[in-house]
Design brief:
Largest sheet: 7 strands, mixed
Structural class: alpha+beta
Number of helices: 11
Distance between the termini: 43 Å
Helix content: 25-40%
Oligomer: single chain
């Protein structure tokens, strides 16, 4: 059975100590000069018609990134402890254990992509997040590197969790924990790559975390076909981009399939190439078989519906 928060509410964050958190957020927001809701632009935002509804009081909380990150981070730490693991920042002395974990988790040609120098760079110009068991053995990783782009990018690499912990939703929590750290470091957009045929990872990241496939690389030399993905690093973006399957079904039934959305079979490589080459539609969700048809489909929305014109 999946663990619950101290209040008995199921994870994730939206059910966690909501009332006490919001009271503290509201108290801070009443101070002189506090920003108004919506004062900063939101971008890479999926339409509310296909996303889970957040509590109507939550916008108060979006104004305080530090409080938001602290509270959700503590909840994730509690979740991780349930499985007798701890989640923490990478340190210099972790290098041998990380390389050993990567050699366990991946074939040699993939494991060798991360070097000790890379780990040094991540520690100093981004961060690394580790899952560690009670014996001090590394059981999960994710690495970030910050770039001074207009959107202040945090680039994501090598999210991995040991197969021994498969099915416990740990990858999702590691990704969110890393997102919170990147947001605290000043990043505004998290970026990365997901392999075109990795439907399991696409489902978790698009539907449960909230990423948007803002680009497509048909053939990266030596790697293959990948979606380029983007996730807004602000409290609203991290809570309001999660897909609601029932809402998606209503959206598909009540909107125009050419003007408002497009469905592309999940294995249709040529169809995705054409989508990104000739239209401004971007993949925002992966629909399992039975939701929009007998097979799995990518749901693509026009750029205007995803607030992607900021940069």
């Amino acid at each position: 059975m999946e663990p619950k928060s101290e209040t008995g509410q199921p994870y994730p964050f939206l059910g966690y100590q909501k009332n006490s958190i919001l009271r503290r957020a509201k108290k801070r927001d009443d101070s002189p000069g506090a920003p108004e809701v919506g004062a900063l632009p939101f971008f890479y935002q999926k339409p509310h018609q296909i996303c889970k509804t957040t509590d109507q009081a939550l916008p108060m909380y979006w104004k305080d990134k530090n409080l938001f990150a602290k509270e959700w981070g503590q909840q994730i730490e509690s979740y991780i402890r349930y499985y007798k693991l701890q989640i923490r920042l990478m340190k210099n002395e972790d290098t041998p254990g990380i390389l050993e974990f990567l050699s366990r988790r991946y074939p040699p040609h993939i494991a060798s992509e991360i070097s000790p120098f890379d780990l040094y760079r991540f520690r100093n110009f981004g961060h690394g997040i580790l899952l560690e068991d009670s014996l001090g053995k590394i059981q999960g990783t994710i690495f970030e590197e910050l770039y001074g782009t207009a959107e202040k990018t945090s680039y994501t690499m090598r999210l991995a969790v040991s197969e021994d912990y498969k099915g416990k939703n740990l990858g999702y929590h590691v990704m969110i924990f890393s997102s919170l750290k990147a947001m605290e470091q000043g990043a505004r957009v998290k970026r990365g790559l997901i392999e075109f045929f990795n439907l399991r990872s696409l489902h978790v990241n698009l539907n449960k975390v909230g990423w948007i496939c803002d680009g497509f690389e048909p053939n990266i030399s030596g790697l293959g076909a990948f979606f380029k993905i983007a996730l807004p690093l602000d409290p609203r973006g991290l809570t309001s981009n999660v897909i609601d399957t029932n809402k998606v079904m209503d959206f598909v039934q009540n909107h125009s399939p050419e003007n408002d959305y497009r469905l592309i079979a999940a294995g249709d490589y040529d169809g995705i190439c054409d989508l990104y080459e000739t239209t401004d539609f971007k993949v925002a969700a992966l629909l399992h078989a039975g939701i929009a048809g007998k097979e799995a489909y990518f749901l693509a929305l026009p750029r205007r519906s995803l607030q992607m014109n900021t940069f």
